[in-house]
């Protein structure tokens, strides 16, 4: 049975140590701040998440760019030459052209390596939701599943990854075209905190709103308590945009309400690419849901 490598992109926001543990190759998207460009590696070697959020608080308005076809070709070719097949699971294709870059690279490389298998999947997930799907796939791989079996597992599981989050400043979503300018101004004036999710198409969707941050965070906890499938046997990923203390408040509430242990909870800072679009103060929970979204 041929070995296969798991590929993804840095929008998965996985802790670098976990990606290394499971031999997941995450190609970096880019962050541009003024005249400066940074590669968004998971280990933050060029730009840490905390540094990005500090720059935003100082008034920076970063933009981002996708992984290029050439970058995918270079990284994939190295593993193909080593005799590995490739399964690449990418950030939501409707939110970035990164998925399409991987598809183009795979198409070109299949001609160069006709004996190798290269599969590319749109996760329809974002941030640590994408990261959670990658971890689940890597665990299947470690159990001895074939590339085709892990591919089918990913295609089935991807829409069972729940994403629930709130942002602290609606203007970041407005700048990215996710909400209207009027909604951002009115929402900010009224201290409205939106409850957002990722739908079955991989698109951002507003599904509710709360008056104030505390109420919004309580709603995230309620979503996890109500919708998390087998909490004592699976992971929840709590993502925060430089508000770690509140993330641990959520973790402690979930331990109290559901009886889960620290082993079931991963708290991690949302990466610089996602953070460029949602801004500091964003809070999110990602877990295996009881039903497909």
Summarize the structure.
The protein has two domains: 4-159, Rossmann fold (3-Layer(aba) Sandwich); 160-288, Hypothetical Protein Tm841, Chain: A,domain 3. Helices cover 42% and strands 24% of the residues. The protein contains eleven helices and 13 strands.
Write the layout of secondary structure elements.
Elements: E1 4-9, H1 16-21, E2 24-27, E3 30-33, E4 36-39, H2 49-57, E5 63-65, H3 69-81, E6 85-90, H4 98-112, E7 118-122, H5 127-142, H6 147-157, E8 161-166, H7 170-175, H8 181-189, E9 192-198, E10 204-211, H9 213-227, E11 236-240, H10 244-258, E12 265-269, H11 272-278, E13 283-288
Parallel strand pairs: 1-2, 1-6, 6-7, 11-12
Antiparallel strand pairs: 3-4, 3-5, 8-13, 9-10, 11-13
Helix pairs in contact: 3-4, 5-6, 9-10
Describe this structure in words.
Mean pLDDT is 93; it is low at 180-187. α10 (244-258) links the parallel β11 (236-240) and β12 (265-269). Strands 2-1-6-7 form a 4-stranded parallel sheet, with helices on both faces. α3 (69-81) crosses α4 and α5 (127-142) runs antiparallel to α6 (147-157). The longest helix has 16 residues, at 127-142. The protein is built from 11 helices and 13 strands. The protein is of the alpha/beta class and 293 residues long.
Percent of residues in beta strands: 15-25%
- Give me the Rg, rounded: 19 Å
Give unreliable regions as ranges.
Answer: 180-187
Structural class: alpha/beta
Order of helices and strands: EHEEEHEHEHEHHEHHEEHEHEHE
What is the CATH C level class of the largest domain, in words?
Alpha Beta
Classify the helix fraction into a percent range.
Answer: 40-55%
The CATH architecture designation of the largest domain is 3-Layer(aba) Sandwich
User: End-to-end span in angstroms?
Assistant: 34 Å
């Amino acid at each position: 049975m041929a070995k296969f490598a798991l590929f993804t992109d840095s929008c998965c926001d996985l802790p670098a140590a976990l990606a290394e543990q499971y031999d997941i190759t995450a190609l970096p998207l880019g962050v541009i701040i003024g005249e400066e460009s940074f590669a968004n590696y998971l280990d933050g070697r060029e730009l840490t998440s905390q540094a990005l959020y500090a720059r935003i608080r100082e008034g920076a308005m970063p933009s981002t760019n996708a992984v290029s076809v050439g970058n995918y070709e270079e990284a994939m070719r190295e593993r193909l030459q080593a005799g590995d097949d490739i399964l690449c699971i990418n950030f939501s294709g409707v939110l970035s052209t990164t998925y399409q870059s991987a598809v183009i690279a795979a198409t070109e490389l299949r001609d160069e390596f006709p004996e190798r298998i290269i599969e590319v999947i749109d996760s329809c997930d974002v941030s640590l939701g994408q990261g959670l799907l990658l971890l689940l796939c890597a665990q299947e791989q470690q159990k001895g599943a074939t590339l085709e079996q892990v591919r089918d597992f990913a295609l089935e599981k991807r829409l069972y990854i729940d994403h629930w989050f709130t942002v602290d400043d609606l203007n970041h979503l407005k700048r990215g075209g996710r909400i209207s300018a009027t909604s951002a101004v009115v929402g900010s004036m009224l201290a409205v905190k939106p409850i957002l999710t990722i739908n079955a198409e991989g698109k951002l969707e507003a599904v509710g709103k709360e008056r104030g941050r505390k109420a919004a965070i309580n709603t995230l906890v309620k979503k996890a308590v109500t919708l998390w499938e087998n909490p004592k046997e699976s992971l929840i990923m709590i993502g925060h945009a430089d508000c770690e203390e509140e993330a641990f408040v959520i973790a402690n509430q979930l331990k109290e309400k559901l009886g889960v242990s620290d082993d079931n909870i991963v708290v991690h800072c949302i990466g610089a690419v996602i953070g460029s679009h949602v801004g500091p103060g964003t809070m999110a929970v990602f877990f295996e849901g009881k039903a497909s979204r």
